[in-house]
């Protein structure tokens, strides 16, 4: 998602509606667009908070999935 595009200038939704990070709970795409266009350092920090939360979410999902697969293979009665 490229928040500097004009399409986000009036978009009041969060970056990701399913995300519960500080940025998604507190800032709209329009606000982040305005910050990004003005090249404020705050924009980089807020977007980084979301990106780290997103990566942590998917990394934990991946690890739990791998654990479940290993567990099921170990204890399956084939």
In round numbers, the mean pLDDT is 91
Total helix count? 3
Q: Helical proportion?
A: 55-70%
Low-confidence stretches: none
Summarize the biggest pleated sheet: none
Shape: elongated
Order of helices and strands: HHH
Q: Please provide the count of β strands.
A: 0
Helix-and-strand structural type: mainly alpha
Strand content: under 5%
Radius of gyration, CA atoms, in whole angstroms: 18 Å
Spatial gap, N to C terminus: 45 Å
Keywords, separated by commas or semicolons:
78 residues; mainly alpha; elongated
Any overview of this molecule?
It is elongated and about 60 Å long. The chain has 78 residues and is mainly α. The chain has three helices and no strands. Helix 2 (29-37) crosses helix 3. The longest helix is centred in the last third of the chain and has 35 residues, at 41-75. Helices cover 63% and strands 0% of the residues.
Architecture blueprint of SSEs:
Blueprint: H1 22-26, H2 29-37, H3 41-75
Helix pairs in contact: 2-3
Short description:
The protein is mostly helical and 78 residues long. The protein has three helices and no strands.
